[in-house]
Fold each of these.
Amino acid sequence: MKQINEERINNLLLGAVDTDSRKIDKIINKSKSLKRLTLEESAILLTAQDADSIDKIFTAASFVKEEIYGKRVVLFAPLYISNFCLNNCLYCAFKSDNLSIKRKALSVSEIKSETEWLLSRGHKRILMVCGEDAPKAKSSIDYYLEAIRTIYAAEVSRNKIKRININCAPLSVNDFKKLKRSGIGTYQIFQETYHEQTYRSMHLRGPKSDPDNRIDAVDRAFTAGIDDIGIGALFGLYDYRFEVLGLLSHVEHMEEKFKVGPHTISVPRIEPAEGSELSLHPPYKISDNEFKKIVAVLRLSVPYTGIIMSTRETPQMRDSLLSLGVSQISAESRTSPGGYSVSAQEQAGGQFSLGDHRSLDEIIASLIAHDYIPSFCAACYRMERTGEAFMQLAKPGTIKGKCSLNALATLKEYLLDFASDKVRASGEQMINRLSRELNQNDQRLLRNIFAHIDRGVRDEFV
Ligand code: SAM
Ligand code: SF4
């Protein structure tokens, strides 16, 4: 993996041990001015052990999160379209030698039903996910394009999916171009581990066994014109400090070569997966405190990059990570193809077990109770504020104003169309309170949008 210099990472981690607290304070102060940290500075924060420094890192992360993203939290749901896979990743239930799960690739009508189920709950943003294999007589890209068309075409009482992000195996530049033309938002791909030897030992067979092909997929996607890219590491495979510096080295590479960093970073922790012994005993199991540190250091290191957390985590953990820097969360997820709308007996195997089983309405209730604005906004992507254009807005924190307005508008729609009585009441209160804090111009804008929503218009944004 030419993008990753392992020796440099190891040396930075060694050199960071026993850094004195004044230097740590200096780095924390720098991060509070919303400046990107260097790899060396991130290594020092990652290595800090004493309770006082950790406390300061957490406080600074909360500050930066609030400065750049405000109170809004973007919600999405994964839609697994297939669990067939040619690979044999030791941690995943979809691995090819796992004979204990039922396999399924959803048909067009099943994908439509899944999307309609999600729409009927109030979801607007989907992460499409699949194993690395296509149903018979179709190429992977044709299957993905068919699925994307189906998801965007679905409609439930005036509500449609606004943005499909996709997490799928590496493609060629040509196929990435087709994906871009289909109107996807972010292309997501996790390197899993940036430590090459560990990578090779986890991916023994199949196309994914080549670490270079995987990391180069990000470059190919950029070359094809996809400028919203999501990267990630699967925490638990190797030392978390190395992985965070691996992620940040990857960010450096993207910034150097393509002038724009990743749109999002995902931080999955290994969860128990049926048929995967390794998932039950991850080689580098991450404690809750280490996990919080990972999120906080990432938030300080790349302040303008979204951090995504999935329903792998428990409600308690998710609530505390939100204040440390997470800006997008999945809600009400199922990790099996057909998991939303197909009957339990017919359901295919899921990818891993989940920690958060609350409904979307319950998650929204909890966000409101913690003073976060649940958001289904996809305005940036639709206004072509992607890639560098998004970063220009995100860097000085200007996105925050637009985000809050759009989040309130999408919340209003949710309250009218889908919310339980209890959530409607608490949501209305939140909207009234936060609207009063806006400047006159924004208040006028929002009043206008609300008047349209009351008349049945949906999906207006600034
Ligand atoms: N098959 C494609 C791939 O591997 O890139 C795309 C989808 S794969 C289902 C999405 C991600 O799930 C993987 O990149 C991996 O990080 C994550 N994953 C796999 N097994 C997991 C487990 N046991 N716990 C948590 N996350 C897991
Ligand atoms: Fe297949 Fe992806 Fe699971 Fe690996 S992580 S077995 S590639 S679905």
Note: The chain has three domains: 6-66, 69-393, 395-454.
Amino acid sequence: MLTERQLAERVGAIPGMGRIAAALADAPPCYLVGGAVRDLLLGRLPADVDIAVEGDAEEAARLLAAELGGTVEPHRRFGTATIAPSAATGLPHEINLAGTRRETYQVPGALPEVEPAPLSEDLRRRDFTVNAMAVDLVARQPALHDPLGGCDDLAAGLIRVLHPRSFEDDPTRLLRAVRYAVRLGFALEPGTERLARAAVAAGAPATVSGGRVADELLDLLAEAEAPAGVALMRELGLDVALCPALAADADLVAGAQLAAGETGADPVLAALAALLCRRAEVGGAAGWVDRLEIGAAARDAVLRAAASAPELAARLRGPLAPSALRRLLDGEPAEALALALALGAPGEPVLDYLGRLRHVRLEIDGADLVAAGVEPSPALGRALDAVLERKLDGELGGRDAELAAALAAARGA
Ligand code: ATP
């Protein structure tokens, strides 16, 4: 347990904290809350700063922006505001302010109704004890508010919900529990684990909108420890509860994460595709991926990768001429290549394709053939394609050879 002085030192060590506290001196009581407090107590520097205001958060955000610069983006429904100070200030890139509030869940899985309430109630609406602590921001000697035993659970390495209905109210907390457990190397407290299994068995994850699932699932897959998270998802039955077409395979996710670095794939999308590709019928998951609302390009890359990677992996294991390799991989998203590698495809042809073959171009084009008297027609494009294949296979060297081969192909067609 830290002394108040040690705590004050750690708060002061967050870049820009002195300026933030000074700017809020005349605001209603303000507290550092959530992950920032957890990370400070663990001796880690928090990435984001979340501030709870016992009063008007938007007004406090304006005071802060007037002092720090940056833009204020208010979210009126929840009485919150975000400030993004300009990079030059060296301040955290995001400072989130929220009025302290109570939340009521009318419909399980839906967003809650909110109304202003004191800090003590605000802490009680949170997900886990380790995230339900606050530190006074403006007080000369900041005190820790820990009414729910967050410090004890930090010391014991436990993720514990605050009440038995927590996962039913908001099943995204199942994914959050997994994320914090693997990131911090913590265990689910036994009662919390029982509640998690009961919520999964009752089908709670299906009550959440796809967009909210995506927010939490992609955050989990972005963790360095994502494979361990995926293993825990599977252990809890959370994968199939989210979508019956998911099969959480930790080794495959680890392989996809690793291969994403070699292929230029997005590691999170490659990991998501890895969750989908163990099922024979990827098509069954298309509707679920649609509902995640991750954007058309990301959706297409994930579904394509999940569907094509097993066959790519099989074909890459056999002998392939360079032209056949290029034909096989052209048009595949980088995530498909990453997943094929994760499924055991040999690295050498994939790296040869990425580093060399996909960049090979002819020195001639259609205009050269027309200039040589060939009538413009689709046959001309086919002739150029055939010549490119021969070039890839090392059969042609130089522009003249390309032109002669293309003219022969176009005229013979
Ligand atoms: P990270 O380090 O991953 O950003 P964080 O704790 O800052 O962790 P956020 O998602 O930014 O995570 O949430 C900030 C705080 O808001 C949490 O610490 C928690 O107290 C509260 N919170 C966020 N999501 C929920 C939720 N679904 N239910 C209850 N409380 C939540």
Note: The chain has four domains: 1-156, 157-239, 243-359, 366-411.
Amino acid sequence: MRKNIAAGNWKMNLDLDAGKILASEVINMTADEVSNDAEVILIPPFVHITSVKQLAGSAKNVFVGAQNCSDKASGAFTGEISVEMLKSAGVDYIVVGHSERREIYGEDDALLASKTKAVLEGGLKPIFCCGEKLESREAEQHFAVNKEQIEKGLFGLSKEEILKVVIAYEPVWAIGTGVTASSDQAQEMHAYIRGLIAEQYDQETADSISILYGGSVKPDNAQELFAQPDVDGGLVGGASLKSRDFVDIIKSF
Ligand code: PGA
């Protein structure tokens, strides 16, 4: 059955020393306090990955992720980082299509499909993000927007490939705003996304894929969100920068 996952996306925050302190605190507190089998994924900026991986060592259920990658294998692509490089640094998961990449850096569906494929071909697991903007929700286009992102980003994959993908539903209006989708809104969209996968592949495949919610997840709303049948955890931004808050979120399963 699918896994419960708490992933902390640090975004472009914290210098190396602060990142090492945060990672150590989360790893130690998780070992001491978390008895369930949820997977924890720490997703620091690229330059901190090696250090965070060293700290994670063989910690039970703690994995390291990257926030982005190139869809190219190697070569003259100044400033880019390949899946193979991330793999060699100990990364297990790579976030693809975060709304900040889509919006600020203009990453389109075709590029994101190509990145997803590159991650899988490199033997790592994509955390594929989708989510509508406020105007789409207000215009009641939110199902259509998420459907298009999922179809264009993921439906070129084989069944074996999509089984390795984690999906993160992150309504853009809830990211970094303090406004969280209600647990009903999250459940409704997660069930819809799972239904799309069941239609395209089959029910067993859909039931095996973890779908995370992201957007102002906090210790005081995580439990209610994670209790929803189709919400398998969270992709957490701001609250993952405070070890106590993030560990309380991890303990919310
Ligand atoms: P937030 O960010 O928790 O700060 O809203 C979530 C995300 O962007 O993944």
Note: The chain has one domain: 5-250.
